[in-house]
Amino acid sequence: MHLNAFLLLAAFLFCTGVYGALARKNAVLVLMSIELILNAVNVNLVAFGAFQRSIVGHIFALFVVAIAAAEVGVGLAIVLLIYRNRHSIDLTEVDLMKG
Amino acid sequence: MLTAAASTDLNTVEYVVFGVIAASMAIAAIRVVTAKNIVHAALYLVVVLAGVAALYVMLAAEFIAVVQVLVYIGAIVVLLLFGTMLTRAPIGTTSDLDNEQRGVSLVVSLFLLGVLGWTLTKAFGWSHMPETPVQRTADVGNSIFQSFVIPFEVVSILLLAALVGAVVIARRD
After folding, report:
1. Torsion of CA B139, A52, B51, A13, to 10 degrees
2. pTM attached to this predicted model
3. Averaged over A60-85, what is the pLDDT?
4. Taking CB atoms and an 8 Å limit, are A55 and B102 in contact across chains?
5. What is the ipTM, given to two decimal places?
6. CATH classification for the domain delimited by A3-88, as one of 1.25.10.10, 3.30.420.10, 1.10.287.3510, 1.10.569.10
């Protein structure tokens, strides 16, 4: 098995996630795209861990999973708050900080 | 003890399996970011996450594969679906999910893919994975509780803070 097979697939997932995070305007869909990005990074970590015959890649991936769970929890709470205040989760309307 | 021919066969099988997983993940990932229905996007996300778990199995990382299924498919997707329902996002087909930056986003992500692909091919070329021994769960546990105790504790405090923070932010008062 080539190492690059995993790395290129992860790069593709990452770029798809970046496209989704930039092009979507529904907040929940942006959170899904961020999950794609985090998973791509995790695939990289585990692939490099296997390549180096080291377990540290797995440990890092586990920490990333834990932090992704925290991120989704807080992110959805923020989305709920935005919805409660504005009755919409359209991110193009959340532009109070625009100059 | 594998003969050379049997090992070549095994390699071919490995590539076929990888190709099937990679193709379904790629299609599902594109559907996640282009679907016109939020619930469909979440279900395609399940396909991508299951594919990542299958990749972990191929990389002989059993514990992280199980964690992937439990945490991502079991918890995070459900949380995202809850978010969809609680915000009364349009359930059903709608064309109003993308903003007007689609063209620019496509250019940015294709450029990023080109740069990453070029760099990875240049850096790692055709280097092969070594024969990886299965990373047993006991090894992962030993490593976390010996070398990585302090990061582990920090992550548990972070999770607690995120839990309390989510409750405080979303509380109705």
Report:
1. 140
2. 0.91
3. 92
4. no
5. 0.93
6. 1.10.287.3510
